[in-house]
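Design a sequence for this backbone.
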């Protein structure tokens, strides 16, 4: 046992010794090896244990230290995987990175170990791997000077193990690191000393082939990887040294470059990889920290799994490229739950899963990529620091890589490739800071790609995108849910609901293949939304800038290379559904383009684009976050809408076809245009921004779009280049409707159907079967069969140029416009001018908006404009009538017809009722008959209503007010170089208008053109309403000549500003409009076959409506001046000459008030008329016939025949300036008006406007044309009456039509041309003239006047007098003839009579006899300035010898009472006639008459200069009321000396002439006057005069019925007369004609009666209304009473000699001096009568007369101021028919009366021959008692016997018949009534007899009376009597009552005076006593004489001897 232990101990000692020896030997050997091989020093600290092992490299100062080292076994520790384990404690490694370069040198030198030295036995290696493992507790690695000398890299590894495993073929090495911690530190004073930190758990497994010694597989598992990269790491040099180190051991690039064939990059590296690679990383976290800014990023990844497997044993993929194969392999990458957070814990990147795989088989290569839920939030404000930090690290590396990068060619892949990808739920938001944020997201994207190569390279792929959305804006980074369907969220720049793209590409193999590459694409897009905005452009531009500008260069290079490549055959099929394109602007909202369906089908030959449902709309204000995306038809108020559009392009023939389906609509307005304009500008700015980003060095777009011709100088031909084929264009539009709003409530609509447009080469052609243009919803213009062509030249135009030799251009382009029909319709009262003006303003605004900055070439240098050829088959221009007017007339016609029909039905019923009564007799109930008639009446109403409802059922309603139609219109407008350009146009203007002064400085024209015109029209018709006659009718009209149009450029003051309301944000825009008008200059010559004009006053109401419609076509000028009348407007706008040659010209002047009448007119007929119109003159040359057309026997009466007439109308316009200076008219805008005097209106046309017109008409018939016809005039009495009716019709006052507030027409009425004439002169020259006048057509009686040569001249002036009153009325036209000269020669007058009775055939008898009546060698009439002088040769007075003595004077008959001899015929010799002696009763004297009339517009100062005629005999005459009237119409008659000598017979003859001739009134006229007075009186006393209106209406209707019946009868007779011309012996027609003639006469008689009654009633009613109106006005304005008329009669001296029967012996002589009578009428209907007599005396011429002076004033002074008699009376208007005398006064000077009994009886016998002086006297009191208070005397039976034939003022013939004085003088007062007298007649007669005297005054008159009686009578001498002063107030008397009152009051005073004088004349008392003694007979004789004196003087009745007699002032009881 001890031995055993000893032996054992010995053995142990030996073993220990051997162990220690071995350890020492091993250590020694290891130390030597390290020194020799590694140049390092190895130290082992412990001898028994391996501890503190140190390995130090002396040269590089690297150190490896091991704390402990031991060997363990699985037997001892179950945690160990193998039986033998080499265990290390702590291993420390220290190295210096700057000296690491020398570290690898020994290893590189020692790598030359032979393979045999490294060879191991596979079995031994397998056993070793299974038994041996290495375990390390911890490893600390310290790397010094990693980047700099102060840096340190520390790595700590815990619990690491190294395992080996081998199966004999492969060696598997597994390294497991349970925890790795690594830091990179940098020493310094900064806080950031740690550059990087890393911690992880790692498991690495490597498989190496034993034999091949190649790496076969790698497996890496990483857990809990956590890395922190600090800011200092990126600023250090550590990362910057990496590329230099890594670039050295990569020689593969050099190898690739040296290969002959190009290879794929990375393919060699892929072959060097192991066969299998597996990488798995779990819970990975990477943190980037920036401690200086306290920022960090945290990236976490839950799982990363990478798998690579290559199978070298399987067959490879052959011919992957042309020179390489690819082994079978598979690669897979999987990422899960990746998250990148910022320091604020906001997610930056969020990844759910990413899976990528690649698999290579023997047949193809398959790749796939699956990404699910990737969310990226990039904020540049946070990442900019990281990017700046990373940029420092990548800057040098990228620059070096770019330097080493060379152009690389890629080989062609020949192997099939299948690639598929699926990406879902991706959202990327980017915030770059300087641009708005944006985000891109989509639900899913899938891509399938196949690269196949059967016989050719075939590539196909499918790309599918589901809901792609690109958002921009401030909130775009916020992840949102998908937007609702059919909605657009603002800010989403791109939205794709679904996108599918399928495509294939075939490339044939082989260089000799003739096939082309083919490309097929099929794309389907649904829900495409694109939004263009500034935000979007900025974001996209920033993205492109980040991509780098080289992308543009590469694109250009690709385009160039693609162009050089082989031709490609391609086909594209694209379909887009629900496409919405938006443009968004912060200023103007948004715009939307909606496409329901877009299809694109394209190929190399043909490409077609189809659109279904295209809409352009505006969203003017974006208030909501979302916008509905409706279907195209559902979008409200679209700007553009199109249902279908198809565009086809044929590349081979360069043809483009465009087809638009039905429903093309456009709604445009200026605000919408501004919205679109701003959107387009914003879009172009976005485009320019992107273009500048992509192509910063390219040429600007403007330069690229500039045409080449613009840079070529004029005259230099361009360089020769091959001709380029022009694009052929074909456009077809099914229906189109374009609506343009030119104002808020004004719009224009253009509608077209089936429009086709084609362009081929240089020609353009368009066709449209129907085109309509509407204004404000009214269809105005309608065109049918419209064809437009633009041709380079046309042979037809060359033929049109031939008639104009002045043209220089032989060929020119042509616009050919052909129209089937043109229709223009203007609705009633539609203001077309406003819409048109707004449209022109909008056009000007658009021109300034889009073309204002473009530089336009001058018109002279521009190309010659093309010619125009216009062809219109039918043209119509219509003004529509008022619907109310149309229906009113139609209803009137219906009622007339229904009235006739109802009358017929009533007649039938009457006949049936009569038959029933005849059949049933009295048994027929009356109620039944009433029911029948009531039923008929009800039926009539029903029929009328039914017919009214069916009125427009069969026939359409008449709508036209005016219809202008043309047929066969052809217009040719030729342009020529000779008048093209402003200078040449101005030359043409000066040539065509030489009479107008042209401005010296010239004119600046904005519009100028000149054309040579050629026009032809087959028919030219103008019709008013449905009138049967055309207003104008022109047949075969041809016109040729020049036409120039110019518009002068207005001065700044001549530019008005039109405001366009664009709304926010633009506000109102002012558009400058040029105010000068467009003027025309012409020189035309036309030929017309027939020219007819019809006009009448009955058309004037309709013409007024037409004028109002015409006024609505053109807007009035903005100049506030009064508008020019049409004659001045034509002078302003039209200038030049116009020649017309008319074969037949007609003018029909209608002479009826019925516009539908076709028979009553005056027909002016011109044959071979030559008309010349030049400025200020009209010349007519031709044969003129004037006919009267009437439906009677006087039809076709040519009452005026003027052959070879030359009629010239000269117009002299009276203006303030030159009437031809139209260039001087300067219009002014309202804001540029100059200052004008107060009360004066501004008038821009003041110098040009004509104040008046002087018209001169000259009719010259002295031309010699070789014809024998002579001028003649044929007149009938009925023709004259017809002309009176014609004149009354044409001079009737036109009523205002549709004027006033009711019709919203308050414009002042236009001045008529007839009121514009100031002077009218007429001149007629004729070589001979024949005038026929038939007084009776039936009896064939008339007169004929023949004249050889004559000259007639007359001149008249017109005054327009305003009517008085406050009511605005028309001016009264007053024509006055100022001059008239007539000179006729060889005048012969014949009387014409037919020997037969009335001719029944109504034609002139050719056997009429002519009787010579009068012959004149010459007849001259002259009238100048209102003085007339007549001078007739061969008619003279043969009393021219001088008279020397008084006897010769008396015998010659020159003095009063002289005898003269007369003859009856002045034309025959005096010897052939019987002489008759007569006595002159009035001496030859002079009488002057003055009539002064003042017009209303005369200057008051001028009126005061015109004084009334002076009266020399009464210079001191003054007016009674001391008033001096101003300018008053005055008639004055002045007779200086008047001598009259008459005997009783001559006096009776004068009375008879006055009563029965001068004062004679025809019975009918008298009856008419009495009726008129009666009606007038009835109106005055009526309580309600308006009741007479019903009577007037009733009479008017009756008169109309009579007139209609007469016209109907005349027409029937006219028809019968026409029929009798063919069959003159038709008895039935003759009887019917006679019957109609009788009926016509009866109707005429009835018409005469009722017309007279109606005339009386209307006139009286109007006068009464006017009188009442004047009274009302006068009550208001009593202070404005003025004198309106004065009438004066003045006799200086008048003597009347009363002689005996022989005429020689005198009885008495009455002398009157200074007799004056004046009547003054005032404006208040009052009148003042004044009679003044300066001196009067009556002398007694009887022989032996006691008193020679019978009557004279007592004063012998005859002073001019003293008046012998003065009578004044002021009369007011009558009241109730009673005359009102406001003031009546009689003033008489003291008189001396010396009367003898003989003289009294001679005078009474002179005035009342054959009558006793003592008869017919009654007493005053008795006579007064018989008077009625009304003044009507009692009529006795004897007085009623007086006949009407008795002379009222004298005996006349009644003297010879013995009539009494009472029957002659008082007949008018006591005429027996011819009809029963009613109350009205009694009241009228009573009112006529009475007068209302308000104030009467008769001052006292002293009288001195002397009387010489008979022989036995007592004489009175110088009896002084005084007539008392009499005054009366407010008495209603007759004149007889007044006389009786004066007589009564005077008699009372005179009786007392006579008694007093009588007592004074008696003797004293003594005498009386003596007288008593005388006889009684003497007393009786004396008493009788006294009574006789009193009776003769004062009419005093003395006693009761003769109670039945009274004085001469009394009358019989």
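Sequence:
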């Amino acid at each position: 046992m001890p031995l055993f232990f000893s032996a054992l101990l010995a053995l142990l000692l030996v073993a220990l010794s051997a162990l220690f020896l071995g350890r020492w030997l091993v250590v020694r050997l290891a130390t030597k090896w390290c020194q020799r091989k590694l140049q390092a020093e190895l130290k082992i600290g412990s001898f028994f244990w391996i501890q503190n092992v140190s390995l130090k490299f002396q040269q590089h100062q690297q150190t490896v230290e091991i704390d402990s080292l031991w060997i363990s076994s699985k037997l001892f520790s179950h945690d160990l995987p193998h039986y033998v384990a080499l265990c290390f404690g702590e291993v420390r490694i220290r190295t210096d990175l700057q000296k690491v370069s020398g570290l690898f040198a020994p290893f590189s030198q020692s790598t030359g170990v032979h393979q045999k030295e490294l060879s191991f036995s596979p079995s031994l290696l397998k056993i070793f791997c299974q038994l041996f493992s290495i375990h390390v507790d911890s490893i600390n690695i310290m790397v010094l000077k990693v980047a700099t000398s102060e840096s340190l890299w520390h790595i700590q590894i815990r619990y690491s193990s190294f395992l080996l495993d081998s199966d004999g073929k492969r060696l598997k090495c597994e390294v497991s690191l349970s925890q790795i911690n690594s830091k990179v530190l940098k020493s310094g004073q900064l806080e950031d000393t740690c550059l990087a930190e890393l911690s992880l758990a790692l498991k690495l497994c490597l498989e190496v082939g034993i034999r091949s010694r190649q790496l076969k597989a790698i497996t890496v598992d990483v857990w809990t990887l956590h890395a922190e990269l600090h800011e200092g790491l990126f600023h250090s040099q550590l990362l910057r040294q990496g590329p230099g180190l890594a670039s050295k051991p990569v020689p593969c690039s050099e190898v690739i470059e040296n290969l002959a064939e190009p290879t794929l990059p990375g393919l060699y590296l892929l072959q060097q990889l192991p066969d299998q690679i597996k990488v798995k990383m779990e819970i990975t976290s990477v943190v980037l920290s920036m401690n200086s800014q306290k920022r960090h990023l945290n990236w976490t990844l839950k799982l990363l799994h990478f798998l690579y497997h290559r199978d070298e044993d399987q067959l490879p993929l052959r011919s992957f490229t042309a020179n390489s194969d690819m082994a079978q392999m598979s690669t897979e990458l999987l990422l899960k739950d990746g998250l990148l957070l910022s320091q604020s814990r906001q997610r930056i990147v969020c990844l759910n899963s990413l899976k990528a795989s690649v698999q290579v088989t023997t047949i193809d290569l398959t790749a796939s990529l699956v990404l699910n839920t990737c969310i990226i939030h990039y904020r540049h404000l946070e990442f900019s620091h990281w990017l700046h930090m990373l940029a420092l690290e990548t800057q040098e590396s990228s620059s070096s890589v770019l330097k080493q990068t060379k152009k690389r060619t890629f080989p062609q892949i020949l192997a099939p490739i299948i690639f598929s990808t699926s990406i879902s739920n991706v959202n990327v938001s980017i915030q770059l800071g300087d641009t708005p944020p944006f985000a891109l997201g989509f639900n899913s994207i899938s891509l399938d790609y196949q690269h196949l190569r059967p016989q050719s390279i075939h590539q196909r792929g499918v790309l599918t995108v589901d809901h792609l959305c690109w958002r921009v804006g401030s909130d775009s980074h916020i992840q949102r849910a998908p937007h609702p369907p059919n909605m657009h969220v603002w800010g989403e720049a791109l939205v794709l609901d679904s996108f599918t793209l399928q495509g294939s590409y075939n490339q044939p193999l082989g260089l000799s293949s003739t096939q082309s590459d083919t490309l097929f694409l099929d794309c389907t897009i649904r829900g495409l939304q694109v939004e263009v905005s500034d935000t979007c452009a900025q974001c996209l531009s920033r993205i492109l800038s980040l991509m780098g500008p080289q992308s543009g260069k590469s694109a250009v290079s690709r385009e160039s290379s693609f162009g050089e490549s082989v031709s490609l055959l391609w086909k594209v099929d694209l379909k887009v559904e629900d496409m919405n394109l938006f443009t968004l602007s912060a200023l103007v909202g948004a715009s939307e383009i909606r496409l329901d369906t877009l299809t694109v089908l394209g190929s190399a030959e043909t490409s077609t684009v189809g659109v279904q449902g295209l809409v352009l709309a505006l969203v003017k204000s974006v208030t909501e976050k979302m916008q509905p995306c409706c279907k195209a038809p559902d979008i409200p108020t679209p700007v553009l809408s199109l249902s279908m559009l198809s565009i086809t392009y044929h590349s081979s023939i360069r043809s483009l076809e465009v087809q638009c389906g039905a429903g093309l609509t456009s709604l445009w307005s200026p605000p919408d245009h501004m919205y679109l304009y701003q959107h387009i500008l914003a879009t172009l700015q976005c485009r320019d921004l992107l273009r500048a980003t992509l192509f910063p060095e390219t040429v600007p777009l403007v330069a690229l779009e500039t045409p080449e011709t613009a840079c070529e100088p004029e005259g230099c031909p361009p360089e020769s280049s091959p001709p380029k084929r022009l694009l052929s264009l074909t456009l077809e539009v099914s229906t189109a409707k374009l609506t343009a709003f030119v104002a808020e409530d004004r719009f224009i609509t253009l509608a077209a159907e089936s429009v086709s447009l084609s362009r081929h080469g240089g020609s353009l052609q368009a066709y449209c079967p129907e085109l309509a243009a509407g204004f404000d919803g009214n269809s105005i213009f309608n065109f049918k069969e419209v064809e437009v062509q633009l041709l380079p030249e046309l042979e037809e135009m060359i033929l049109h140029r031939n008639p104009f030799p002045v043209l220089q251009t032989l060929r020119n382009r042509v616009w050919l416009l052909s129209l089937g029909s043109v229709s223009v319709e203007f609705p009633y009262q539609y203001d077309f001018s406003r819409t048109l003006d707004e449209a022109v303003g909008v056009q000007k605004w658009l021109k300034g908006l889009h073309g204002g900055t473009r530089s336009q070439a001058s018109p002279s240098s521009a190309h010659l404009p093309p010619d125009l050829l216009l062809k219109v088959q039918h043209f119509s221009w219509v003004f529509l009538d008022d619907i109310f007017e149309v229906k009113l007339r139609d209803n009137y016609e219906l009622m007339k017809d229904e009235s006739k029909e109802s009358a017929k039905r009533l007649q039938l019923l009457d006949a049936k009722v009569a038959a029933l009564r005849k059949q049933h007799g009295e048994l027929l109930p009356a109620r039944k008959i009433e029911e029948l008639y009531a039923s008929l009446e009800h039926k009539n109403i029903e029929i009328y209503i039914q017919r009214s409802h069916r009125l427009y059922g069969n026939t359409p309603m008449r709508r036209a007010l005016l219809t202008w139609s043309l047929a066969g219109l052809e217009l040719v407008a030729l342009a020529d170089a000779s008048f093209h350009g402003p200078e040449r146009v101005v030359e043409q203007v000066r040539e065509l208008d030489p009479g107008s002064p042209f401005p010296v400085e010239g004119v600046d024209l904005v519009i100028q053109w000149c054309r040579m015109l050629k026009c032809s029209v087959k028919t030219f018709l103008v019709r008013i309403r449905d009138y049967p006659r055309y207003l104008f009718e022109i047949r075969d009209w041809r016109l040729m000549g020049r036409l120039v149009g110019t518009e002068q450029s207005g001065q700044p003051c001549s530019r008005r500003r039109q405001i366009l309301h664009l709304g926010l944000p633009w506000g109102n825009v002012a558009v400058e409009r040029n105010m000068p008008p467009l003027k025309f200059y012409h020189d035309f010559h036309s030929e017309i076959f027939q020219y007819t004009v019809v006009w009448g006053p009955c058309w004037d109401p309709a013409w007024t409506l037409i004028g109002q419609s015409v006024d609505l076509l053109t807007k009035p000028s903005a100049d506030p001046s009064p508008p020019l009348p049409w004659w001045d407007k034509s002078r302003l706008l039209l200038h030049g000459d116009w020649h017309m040659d008319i074969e037949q010209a007609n003018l029909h002047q209608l002479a009826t008030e019925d516009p539908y009448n076709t028979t009553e007119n005056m027909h002016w007929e011109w044959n071979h008329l030559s008309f010349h119109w030049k400025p200020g003159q009209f010349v007519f040359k031709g044969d003129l016939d004037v006919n009267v057309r009437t439906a009677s026997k006087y039809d076709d009466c040519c009452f005026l025949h003027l052959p070879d007439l030359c009629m010239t109308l000269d117009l002299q316009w009276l203006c303030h300036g030159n009437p031809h200076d139209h260039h001087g008219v300067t219009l002014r805008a309202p804001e540029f008006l100059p200052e004008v005097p107060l009360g004066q209106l501004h008038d821009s046309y003041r110098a040009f406007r004509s104040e008046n017109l002087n018209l001169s008409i000259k009719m010259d018939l002295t031309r010699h044309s070789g014809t024998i016809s002579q001028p003649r005039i044929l007149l009938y009495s009925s023709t004259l009456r017809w002309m009176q009716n014609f004149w009354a019709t044409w001079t009737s006052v036109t009523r205002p039509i549709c004027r006033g507030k009711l019709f919203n027409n308050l414009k002042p009425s236009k001045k008529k041309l007839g009121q514009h004439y100031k002077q009218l002169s007429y001149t007629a020259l004729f070589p001979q003239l024949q005038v026929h006048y038939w007084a009776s057509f039936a009896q064939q009686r008339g007169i004929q006047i023949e004249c050889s040569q004559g000259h007639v001249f007359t001149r008249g002036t017109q005054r327009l007098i305003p009517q008085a009153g406050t009511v605005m009325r028309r001016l009264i036209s007053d024509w006055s003839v100022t001059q008239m000269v007539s000179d006729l020669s060889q005048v012969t007058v014949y009387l014409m009579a037919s020997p037969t009775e009335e001719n029944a055939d109504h034609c002139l008898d050719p056997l009429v006899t002519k009787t010579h009546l009068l012959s004149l060698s010459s007849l001259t009439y002259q009238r100048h300035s209102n003085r007339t002088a007549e001078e007739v040769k061969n008619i003279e007075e043969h009393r021219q010898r001088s008279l020397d003595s008084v006897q010769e004077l008396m015998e010659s008959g020159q003095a009063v009472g002289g005898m003269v001899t007369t003859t009856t015929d002045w034309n025959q010799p005096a010897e052939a006639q019987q002489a008759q002696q007569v006595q002159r009763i009035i001496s030859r004297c002079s009488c002057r008459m003055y009539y002064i009339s003042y017009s209303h517009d005369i200057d008051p100062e001028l009126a005061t200069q015109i004084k009334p005629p002076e009266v020399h005999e009464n210079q001191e005459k003054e007016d009674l009321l001391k008033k001096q009237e101003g300018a008053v119409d005055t008639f004055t008659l002045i007779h200086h000396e008047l001598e009259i000598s008459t005997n009783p017979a001559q006096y009776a003859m004068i009375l008879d002439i006055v009563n029965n001739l001068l004062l004679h009134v025809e019975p009918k006229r008298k009856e008419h006057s009495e009726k008129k007075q009666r009606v007038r009186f009835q109106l005055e006393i009526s309580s309600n005069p308006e009741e007479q209106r019903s009577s007037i209406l009733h009479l008017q209707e009756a008169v109309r019925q009579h007139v209609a019946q007469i016209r109907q009868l005349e027409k029937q007779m006219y028809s019968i007369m026409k029929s009798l011309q063919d069959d003159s012996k038709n008895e039935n027609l003759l009887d019917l004609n006679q019957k109609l003639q009788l009926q016509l006469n009866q109707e005429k008689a009835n018409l005469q009666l009722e017309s007279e009654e109606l005339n009386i009633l209307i006139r009286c009613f109007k006068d009464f209304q006017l009188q009442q109106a004047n009274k009302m006005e006068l009550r208001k304005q009593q202070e404005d009473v003025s004198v309106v008329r004065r009438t004066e009669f003045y006799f200086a001296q008048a003597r009347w000699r009363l002689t005996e029967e022989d005429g020689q012996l005198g009885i008495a002589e009455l002398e009157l001096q200074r007799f004056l009578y004046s009547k003054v009428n005032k404006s208040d209907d009052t009148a003042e009568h004044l009679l003044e007599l300066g001196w009067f005396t009556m002398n007694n011429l009887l022989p032996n007369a006691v008193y020679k002076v019978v009557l004279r004033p007592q004063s012998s002074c005859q002073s001019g101021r003293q008046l012998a008699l003065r009578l004044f009376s002021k009369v007011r208007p009558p009241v109730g028919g009673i005359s009102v005398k406001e003031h009546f006064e009689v003033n008489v000077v003291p008189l001396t009366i010396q009367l003898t009994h003989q003289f009294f009886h001679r005078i009474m016998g002179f005035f009342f021959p054959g009558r006793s002086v003592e008869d017919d006297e009654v007493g005053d009191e008795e006579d007064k008692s018989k008077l009625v208070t009304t003044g009507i005397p009692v009529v006795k039976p004897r007085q009623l016997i007086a006949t009407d034939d008795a002379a009222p003022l004298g005996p006349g013939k009644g003297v010879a018949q013995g009539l009494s004085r009472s029957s002659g003088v008082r007949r008018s007062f006591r005429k027996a009534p011819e009809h029963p007298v009613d109350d009205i007649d009694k009241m009228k007669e009573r009112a006529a007899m009475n007068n209302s005297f308000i104030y009467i005054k008769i001052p006292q008159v002293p009288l001195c009376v002397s009387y010489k009686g008979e022989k036995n009578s007592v004489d009175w001498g110088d009896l002084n009597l005084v007539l008392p002063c009499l005054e009366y107030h407010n008495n209603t008397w007759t004149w007889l009552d007044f006389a009786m009152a004066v007589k009564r009051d005077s008699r009372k005073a005179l009786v007392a005076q006579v008694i007093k004088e009588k007592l004074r004349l008696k003797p004293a008392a003594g005498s009386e006593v003596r007288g008593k003694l005388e006889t009684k007979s003497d007393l009786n004789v004396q008493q009788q004489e006294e009574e006789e004196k009193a009776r003769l003087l004062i009419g005093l009745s003395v006693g009761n001897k003769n109670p039945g007699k009274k004085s001469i002032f009394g009358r019989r009881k």
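The chain has a mean pLDDT of 79.
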